[in-house]
Amino acid sequence: MRDFFDYLWQRRDHLFDLAVAHAKIVLTAIAIAVVISILIGVLVYRRPRIAAFVLAVQGASLTIPSLALFGLLIPIAGLGYRPVLIALVIYALLPITRNTVTGLRGVDPAVLESAEGMGMGRLRRLLRIELPLAWPVILTGIRVSTVMILGIAAIGAYVDGPGLGRDIFDGLARIGSPTAVDLVVGGTLGVIVLALLSDVFYFLLGRLTTSKGIR
């Protein structure tokens, strides 16, 4: 164990750089997925059949093994950053879209009727009432997607993607050598730390962006 901690200390700068690259691609994917998913959710939540179809399509995308999806994207996006980013966005869509639809449908109709009676138009009701009331549910979907794709991003090293997966795959390629286990465990621990930090971040974000009355 002491040797492993020595390994982590000696390679701390390298591991930090990999962790930063890992976090950047995940945050970029989440930002894109949030915009797409909330837009889709807003468009379909009042249309049950269309919403069911959209969620079914997004759910089907989650059944595609990540290695297979990365491989399918190589002819389109090549190797490196782009296929990993595209795949992460695809995987992140379902939890956010589903929670957006669920959150918007869960808004009390009496509240909407009162807002309509006060002269609020549909867009204003959406922005001022529905989305803020649905936000805690939407944020939960964003948190779930983030944690999920943090792990999937590591597999992106298979197609020369950035992040901690590089050390994991390097270690797997060196099985039997003295450094193999250190590489794999070090990269895996890095992903776990990022997942824990993301949970803390979303907890604080929820506290800051959700009014006390609906927490």
Structural notes for this entry:
Helices cover 82% and strands 0% of the residues. It is mostly helical. The protein has one domain (2-214): MetI-like fold (Orthogonal Bundle), CATH 1.10.3720.10. Helix 4 (66-77) crosses helix 5, helix 5 (81-105) runs antiparallel to helix 7 (122-155) and helix 8 runs antiparallel to helix 9. The chain is elongated, with a radius of gyration of 21 Å.
Quick recap of the structure?
This protein has 215 residues and is mainly alpha-helical. 82% of the residues lie in helices and 0% in strands.
Number of domains: 1
Assigned CATH superfamily: MetI-like
**Radius of gyration, in angstroms, nearest whole number:** 21 Å
What percent of residues adopt helix (DSSP H or I)? over 70%
Question: N-to-C terminal Cα separation, in Å?
Answer: 43 Å
Number of strands: 0
Mean pLDDT: 90
**Structural class by helix and strand composition:** mainly alpha
